[in-house]
Amino acid sequence: xxxxxxxxxxxxxxxxxxxxxxxxxxxxxxxxxxxxxxxxxxxxxxxxxxxxxxxxxxxxxxxxxxxxxxxxxxxxxxxxxxxxxxxxxxxxxxxxxxxxxxxxxxxxxxxxxxxxxxxxxxxxxxxxxxxxxxxxxxxxxxxxxxxxxxxxxxxxxxxxxxxxxxxxxxxxxxxxxxxxxxxxxxxxxxxxxxxxxxxxxxxxxxxxxxxxxxxxxxxxxxxxxxxxxxxxxxxxxxxxxxxxxxxxxxxxxxxxxxxxxxxxxxxxxx
Amino acid sequence: xxxxxxxxxxxxxxxxxxxxxxxxxxxxxxxxxxxxxxxxxxxxxxxxxxxxxxxxxxxxxxxxxxxxxxxxxxxxxxxxxxxxxxxxxxxxxxxxxxxxxxxxxxxxxxxxxxxxxxxxxxxxxxxxxxxxxxxxxxxxxxxxxxxxxxxxxxxxxxxxxxxxxxxxxxxxxxxxxxxxxxxxxxxxxxxxxxxxxxxxxxxxxxxxxxxxxxxxxxxxxxxxxxxxxxxxxxxxxxxxxxxxxxxxxxxxxxxxxxxxxxxx
Lengths: 270, 264
Known about the structure:
- The complex is a heterodimer.
- Chain A has helices at 45-52, 75-82, 100-111, 116-129, 145-156, 175-192, 203-207, 227-232, 236-243, 259-262, and strands at residues 5-16, 19-30, 34-39, 60-65, 68-69, 85-88, 163-167, 195-200, 212-217, 220-225.
- Chain A is α/β, with parallel strands linked by helices.
- Chain B has helices spanning 9-35, 38-42, 44-54, 59-83, 90-128, 131-137, 142-180, 185-195, 198-226, 231-260.
- In chain B, helix 5 (90-128) packs antiparallel against helix 10 (231-260).
């Protein structure tokens, strides 16, 4: 594996039971870049993130993060590796019984022996970075969707991770929150000198901040390139995906029996 | 809901396999919880917080129920004992029924529906909203951080609540028997003192409640952790916690009574 890549995936296969989700996937995430993995709903994007985080183990192939093969690590090794990662979940996944401040302080209190005054200063700095220092005392239930996601982002970067993963960070946000989050993804990545993986199906917002893009369909990478290359791509699936066309490589109709036969019109009028 | 599959041999077989698989998961989960309980000793604050939510907040319902159960016992016991002219034994009747059976059993039933269901719903919702997964991604084990403290808080709270329920019940019996119906106060207390044995009655009752607390906590945390991450899944798990706990308590009570009070 090249030391320039923070994550390297080759020949990755994975399935739940008999249902196979990922079918021989190859992907590289270079250090310092913001890379997105796009694809329609249910194509295995979130599963891929869980494999990188070590929550699932590959059936075949390898996932190497910062030089360590994730599938081969034991529990302690995995927990050690996860200390280099931060993850933003789709709806934030804030701890609802803790205040905004305590949520961001959680990883620091659980995983470091920092004295409380330092934890306080660090938390306020992280919250300041996402623009929510003034909301430190609020409870998660008092936040709007966009604010909750920013707090979760502050929590994900609480310990200055080297790899930040985003699971659908743009889902269900208003245009202002959307711009704020996408801007934060880029600035935090560059300020921390981290590497980011953004799983999303939001083309417009993510194209502004990306360095490189992978497009997934049916458990495989079907197209890859810089945002400009992707938008100009003439591969059928990429074309349909990036232009939002209704019919094409992905048919509008879910496969089923013949329409005429199903309506029992077979013998009439022809 | 009656499923057609139930009626076939295959359906019964599937049901049996599922049930035993689940029992196996539950046992493994208990093992994991016990193995990861070290954190409760290192950071007792985590347990104290849960004892507050499960135990202290259950106090009102436990104390009020204890008082009423004791009062009813006083009333009923008085009517029956009076027929044989032995009202003075009312204290013994109230104390023994509460210490041996009613105290541990009713407290456990109330605790399961008040605190056990809350623990299941809380853990289930934490799972449904990906809070447990987020914790794992932060390299924090949710079994150690979330499950173990709630489990031990339940085990600790139940005997303490049982003791308070019983004390309150005896006071209720006293209130009705002595203050209201005029049983002699001296014989009420002295007969109780003579007939109640500390090891036989008090300790056995508390051991029972300890067993109930263990069972309720186990069921509650397992159902929560095992709940499907949907609104329907969490509500189903909460119901199962209450139903399974109630049946387990009553079944365990029979087993424990037959083991503990064999000489009687």
